[in-house]
Structure formats: structure tokens, C-alpha cells
Write a structure and sequence with these properties.
heterodimer; A: 243 residues; six-stranded mixed sheet; four-stranded antiparallel sheet; 10 strands; 35% helix; disordered N terminus; B: 500 residues; mainly alpha; 0% strand; globular
């Protein structure tokens, strides 16, 4: 469990006893996670630890098998449409319609989210920040992996969501793209959003987030300030937790 | 190495069919093929002999039709269908010969190919009659079928390879234009029947007839010639396939890096989704090519044959099934990995499925309409109100039935498919074979009912039948929409189409 903002502020993300099972395989096992506004939490852990599954449940894509999931004060199970209005989500793989251009993705997101006419200005700024202006009208099937990741982050932050969920946002991204991602995470946190980042890159997790939650076999095995996982000592401690 | 690669790929494909009932269904379907061939031979023997001469005269045309189909089918599939999408095999050293042979292996998983094969067998049996030479005639037909199938794959690969450069594309278009112009001239000067009577398939038909008539020397000469061509194509095919696969492919890279024009925002979320889905269809190479072939080719063939109006009614039925198979049987695969992102956008779940239903309806209805118009240009005989009503009712009914079936299949059995390469299909080969049988059987039956109604000039029957079919399809679509409302169903579809 993580607490960052004053205790009186309602949490933006809260899961109580979250369990997700795919038949006999339990991906997430009784997970209690709280993320306060204006804070960033990194989910780390081995492959199959349940990080992406947790984010998918929070994003309203995957229904929980049991447990309660609240996002920005909205029960995701009961009212997924309202919950999705508060969430910006960057999936771990793909996440792009293959034969649509970035601008068409942005226009679709703006229309379905009911954004005002100023979305174009915001979209242009984000495309510029992520160095995608030149590719804004090319279909995404021809994009490199890193370009696709950068665009997925742009789509997640377009509407300045109160809950930002980023699944492996640094995977295959060049240093300038990493800087841009760190910047939007920082801005989101400064604007009062709750940010959850899933990654295997410990140093970047520590740089982006205040808190780190270590998952193993669908359960939290450790949580604490990200500073504790910095450097060689932090790395050693993390490896111990994983094993 | 090729000898080991192909069985390994087939075994893996078979293991990936997880459901026991699907495996049983596929085995039953495979077991039906020898049965169908036997039934065709028996039917040929039992049929009254009064029109034996007419059918014999039609032999070269029927054999030519099969040859054209054997070329068009792999050409429409970008060289031939495959057991696995190319991106799933990039880590393995798959040889071009394996690609060529796997395309050949899945060629019979095509309803049009199989039905024409059965038809040729039945025709051979009919023209040969109850003579001891029937076996020889059937052997020749079998070798002819194998030869044109291999040759069709070979020529398709050659054309695909040629189309990888600007010069090659221009040459292929020039060749196509020359064929069209020649066909038009032949039709205009009323030489169609003479050309068909002297089709290049005459020697093959002569060999078949020689086998039936115990003229062993003529039979052996014709059959050996077919075997020689078959062996030649089997030798050349893999080499041409290797050449085509080595070509740099500027076309795909150009399409994937070209700039698309920005257009004004549509007025509603539904219109925005419809626009994205339309773009997804028209920007996909296999879909664009498939739509072109589906909409134009049947209509041109019907126009060339100058079909009667009551026969022309069948055309929308045949085209509707093909249009559904282009991507409709797995319509959510259009979004591929983007399905995950789309699912996180705040919109009513029915909005996305409605947009896809509208676009698929446009695709099926539009293809049928174009084919019907093209076919009616040279339709024979006077047109009546009943003919027009039957055609319109058949078009609406087949579109509605195929749409409802596709929506149901898309929700029940989603597959991962990028539809990026020329040879990509929306589902694995065996699933496509099952879907094609299912769709074509239903639409052909519907088409026959409307053709019968048109023949009887019964307006009332057409309208009643169409009302019933469209209403039933509407109910089925509504039921599929209700299934889509279930979050766990949506999650399963999104997971399948985005991650495989």
C-alpha cells in the first residue's frame, strides 16, 4: 500500500482484494493498492507478476474476477465508461490501430472523450514534445517500435487524465523519448494526477516515481520510496525480492 | 530441408487447433472430399445421356474456367495462402520452396476451387459414360487439376514478383488491359463461342475423351504432356517464388510511409469510428485487392457469359459470401493491437460494434451491387419487374445474412490477424475453409430460392422471403450486440485480436 498525499485527500486509484484469474491461472491475487493524487507509483516485478493485468483492470479493459477497483472515485466494475473518462492508458504492446495515422488516433480520442476544440493545440504540442510531428499523418503500421511507444504515451496524456497508467512506456524508446515521457509523468503528477508506471527498468522507475511497489506472483511483496531501489544496493535488494 | 519444414509446419498448425470438436469437424470435412468426388462420378454415370454431346462441347470451357480460377485465387491472395502469417515465422529459416508448397497444400481449402474440382470430376464421368476407360479419364482430369493448380501458383508468384517494381506494375496493368480489350473485341464481333470452343484446354479434354474411348496412345500422349508440364511447374514454381520473395517490395513500404490527407472532424463519435474503420479496410492491401477481385470479376464473367436475368440473380449470393470472408468473419481484427487502446476510450460498447457492422454492411452490399451492375450490362433476354425485385431482394437478404453470421463469428471466435501483407487472411486456413463452406452454402441456397422466384415471376415470394431473412438477420445482429455488452466477452475479443 502506498500513501503520498495528505490522508484527507481521496485516493485516485484504489484496489481492495483485487483478484484476476484466467481459468486455473491466477494472475493477480488479493491485491491492495492505493495511489494518491499528485503521486507516481512504479509497479515492478518479474514477467508474469501481474503488473500489466493490474493496469488492464484499472483501465477498464479486463473485468476483475473479484475485489473492488476504484478509479478517481468511480467503481470501474459498476461504471466503466465514467472510469475510462478519468483514465489515460498506454498498453504494454501495440495499442495502435495499424492503418490509422497518429492524427486520426488523436481525433478519435478527442471525439470519444468529448474534448473541446483546443485539443488540436494540445495534440500538436505533445507530438512536438515526442518528436512525432513529421510522422503525424503517416499510418502507424510503418512505425518503428519506439515510435509506436511514444505515440501510445501521447494518446494516454492527451486529455490530461486524473489517472495515468503507463505500461512499459520506456520499452525500446530512445533517450529523447524517455526524457519526454519522464516530463509528461512529472507534469501529470504536478497537476494532481495519480500515475502508475509498470516497467522493468529500475533506474527509470526510480527517476519517474516517488514510490515503488514490487509484485511477485500477483501479490505485493514490498513497497517503499523509490530512492531505496537506486544504485547497486537497491538493485541487489530488488533482485533478492524477485527471487 | 524443405521436406522436413513442411510437415513440421503442418503438425504445428494442427496442434494449434485446440478444441476437440473443431478437430473432429475438420476431419469430417476432409473425409467428405473423397465422398463428394465419388458422388460426382456416380451422378455422372446415372445422369440421362441425352445431352452428353452438349456437355462434351462445353468441356474445354469448363477446364479453362478451372484454370482461370487456379490463377485468380492465388493472385488475389498475393501468391497463395499460408499456414502461418509471415511475421510469425520470421525467426525461422523457412525456404521459399516451403512457402510455395504450403500455398499448394492449402489451395484446396477454397470452396470455389473444390466445387469446380468436383464439377470437373462429374463432367468427366458424364462425358465418358459407363465404359472401362473411366478410370483413365479420371486420372487425366486429376493430373490436369494438379497441373493448373501448380501452374496458377507459379504464375501468381511471377506476377506478384513483377509487381514489386514500378515497371513491373505497369507491365502487369498493360497485360490486364490487353486481356480486357481483347475480350471486349471478341465479344463485340460475336466470336466468344468460337474462341471458347478452341480454348487451349482442348488437348487436355481430348486426352480425357481418348482415355474413355480406349484410344490408349492418344490418352498416354496427352496425359504424359500434362505430367511433363506439371513437373516443369513444380521445378520452376519454388524458384519463381524465391525470386518474388527476394524482390525489395517498394509498394508496401511506400504505402506504409506515405502521408494521408487530414480531413475535417466528422460530426459524431459514430461517424468518426466509421471513418477509421473504412480507412482500415481501404488501406489494407489484401482487402483492397480482394474487394476489387470480388466486385469486378464475377460481374465481368457474368457479362461475358451474357447470363439470363433469372440466373443473374445468383450473383449477389456468390459475391456476398466472398465479401464476408475478406475480413468480416473476424471483423475486430481490423483494430489489431489498437483494440486495447480503443477499449479504454469512454464510449458505449455498442458504438464501436455498430461502426464495424455499418462498414462491413457497406463492404458486402457495395461489392454485391457493383457485381450485379457489371453482370447486368450484357444480361440476356427481356428484363421484368420480378427480375429487378428478385435481384434487389437477393442482394439485401444475402447482405443481411452474411452480416449477421460474420458478427456472430467475430464475437465467438476472434483471431489475431494484422491484414498487413498481401497473403494475410483474417483467420487460420482451416477456419477460413469452414467459414467459406458455411457462408457459401447459406448464400447459394438463398440465391437459388430467389432465382426460382424470378423464374416463376413471383414478386410476392421474393418480398416475403426477403422480409423473413432480413428480419431473422436483424434479430441475430441484436443478439450479437447483447453478447457484446458483456465486459468479459469484450475483454476476450480484445485480448485475442490484439495479442493473439
Amino acid at each position: 500500500m502506498v500513501a503520498h498525499a495528505p490522508a484527507t485527500t481521496p485516493a485516485h486509484v484504489e484496489t481492495i482484494g483485487l483478484r484476476v484469474a484466467f481459468g486455473p491461472v491466477v494472475a493477480v491475487h488479493s491485491l491492495d493498492l492505493t495511489v494518491q493524487p499528485a503521486s507516481a507509483v512504479a509497479l515492478v516485478g518479474r514477467n508474469g507478476a501481474g503488473k500489466s493485468t493490474t493496469l488492464r483492470v484499472l483501465a477498464g479493459i479486463l473485468p476483475a474476477t473479484s475485489g473492488q477497483v476504484m478509479v478517481a472515485g468511480v467503481d470501474v466494475t459498476r461504471d466503466p465508461a465514467s472510469a475510462k473518462a478519468h483514465v489515460g492508458y498506454c498498453p504494454d504492446v501495440g495499442g495502435l490501430i495499424p492503418r490509422a495515422t497518429p492524427w486520426e488516433h488523436l481525433a478519435l480520442a478527442a471525439k470519444l472523450r468529448g474534448l473541446g476544440p483546443d485539443w488540436k493545440e494540445r495534440a500538436s504540442e505533445l507530438l512536438d514534445l515526442f518528436d512525432l510531428v513529421g510522422a503525424a499523418d503517416r499510418i502507424t503500421a510503418g512505425f518503428s517500435h519506439g515510435m509506436g511507444r511514444r505515440l501510445s504515451v501521447v494518446l494516454a496524456v492527451l486529455h490530461a487524465p486524473s489517472v495515468l497508467l503507463l505500461d512499459e512506456p520506456f520499452d525500446g524508446v530512445d533517450p529523447l523519448g524517455v526524457d519526454a515521457t519522464l516530463r509528461v509523468i512529472s507534469e501529470a503528477r504536478d497537476n494532481g494526477s495519480a500515475v502508475v508506471v509498470s516497467t522493468h527498468l529500475l533506474e527509470l522507475a526510480a527517476a519517474a516515481c516517488d514510490e515503488v511497489v514490487v509484485l511477485r506472483a500477483g501479490q505485493i511483496v514490498a513497497a517503499g520510496p523509490s530512492a531505496e531501489l537506486r544504485g547497486a544496493a537497491g538493485e541487489l535488494r530488488y533482485r533478492t525480492l524477485l527471487s | 530441408m524443405t521436406g522436413a519444414q513442411l510437415p513440421a509446419l503442418v503438425r504445428l498448425r494442427w496442434r494449434m487447433v485446440r478444441a476437440e470438436r473443431v478437430r473432429v469437424g475438420l476431419l469430417v470435412l476432409a473425409a467428405c472430399i473423397p465422398g463428394l468426388l465419388c458422388a460426382a462420378v456416380i451422378a455422372g454415370q446415372l445422369a440421362p445421356r441425352s445431352r452428353s454431346f452438349d456437355v462434351t462441347v462445353l468441356g474445354p470451357t469448363a477446364f479453362l474456367g478451372f484454370a482461370v480460377l487456379s490463377l485468380v485465387a492465388p493472385l488475389a491472395a498475393g501468391g497463395g495462402n499460408e499456414l502461418f502469417p509471415p511475421e510469425q515465422l520470421v525467426a525461422y529459416p523457412i525456404r521459399p520452396a516451403t512457402h510455395f508448397l504450403e500455398s499448394l497444400l492449402v489451395a484446396p481449402l477454397n470452396l470455389a476451387w473444390m466445387s469446380q474440382f468436383v464439377l470437373l470430376f462429374g463432367m468427366t464421368s458424364f462425358v465418358t459414360g459407363a465404359r472401362p476407360g473411366l478410370g483413365l479419364a479420371l486420372v487425366t482430369t486429376l493430373i490436369y487439376v494438379a497441373m493448373v493448380t501448380v501452374a496458377g501458383q507459379m504464375v501468381a508468384w511471377a506476377l506478384i514478383g513483377a509487381r514489386q517494381s514500378l515497371l513491373g506494375r505497369r507491365a502487369v496493368w498493360a497485360l490486364l488491359a490487353a486481356i480486357v480489350v481483347t475480350t471486349l473485341i471478341v465479344l463485340q464481333v460475336h466470336l466468344g463461342y468460337r474462341v471458347l470452343d478452341n480454348a487451349p484446354t482442348r488437348p487436355a479434354v481430348s486426352a480425357v475423351l481418348a482415355g474413355g474411348a480406349h484410344r490408349y496412345a492418344a490418352w498416354a500422349a496427352g496425359t504424359v504432356a500434362l505430367v511433363v508440364i506439371l513437373v516443369g511447374c513444380l521445378w520452376c514454381g519454388p524458384r519463381i517464388c524465391a525470386w518474388a520473395l527476394r524482390r525489395p517490395g517498394d509498394r508496401t513500404r511506400f504505402r506504409e510511409s506515405r502521408v494521408e490527407r487530414r480531413r475535417p472532424m466528422p460530426p459524431s463519435p459514430l461517424a468518426t469510428l466509421v471513418r477509421v474503420d473504412r480507412a482500415n479496410v481501404w488501406r489494407a492491401a489484401p482487402l483492397r485487392r480482394g474487394l476489387l477481385v470480388l466486385a469486378v470479376l464475377p460481374g465481368v464473367v457474368a457479362a461475358t457469359a451474357a447470363l439470363r436475368w433469372d440466373s443473374l440473380v445468383l450473383l449477389p449470393a456468390l459475391v456476398a459470401a466472398g465479401a464476408g470472408l475478406l475480413y468480416g468473419v473476424n471483423m475486430f481484427c481490423l483494430d489489431a493491437g489498437g483494440a486495447t487502446w480503443l477499449a479504454t476510450l469512454p464510449h458505449p460498447p455498442r458504438l464501436a460494434v455498430t461502426a464495424k457492422t455499418i462498414v462491413l454492411g457497406e463492404t458486402i452490399g457495395g461489392s454485391c451491387f457493383v457485381a450485379a451492375i457489371a453482370g447486368s450490362v450484357r444480361a440476356a433476354g427481356p428484363i421484368t419487374v420480378a427480375d429487378i425485385v428478385a435481384m434487389a431482394c437477393c442482394l439485401a437478404s444475402c447482405t443481411a445474412v452474411v452480416l449477421a453470421t460474420c458478427l456472430r463469428l467475430s464475437i465467438r471466435t476472434p483471431h489475431r490477424a494484422d491484414l498487413r501483407g498481401h497473403r494475410d487472411t483474417p483467420a487460420p486456413p482451416a477456419a477460413m475453409a469452414v467459414y467459406s463452406v458455411r457462408l457459401a452454402t447459406v448464400t447459394t441456397l438463398i440465391g437459388l430460392l430467389f432465382a426460382l422466384s424470378a423464374h416463376e415471376q413471383s414478386l410476392y415470394a421474393c418480398l416475403v422471403l426477403a422480409s423473413g431473412l432480413v428480419s431473422l438477420s436483424g434479430l441475430s445482429i441484436a443478439q450479437s450486440f447483447r453478447r457484446w455488452d458483456d465486459p468479459s466477452v469484450r475483454a476476450r475479443v480484445v485480448a485475442a485480436v490484439s495479442n493473439g
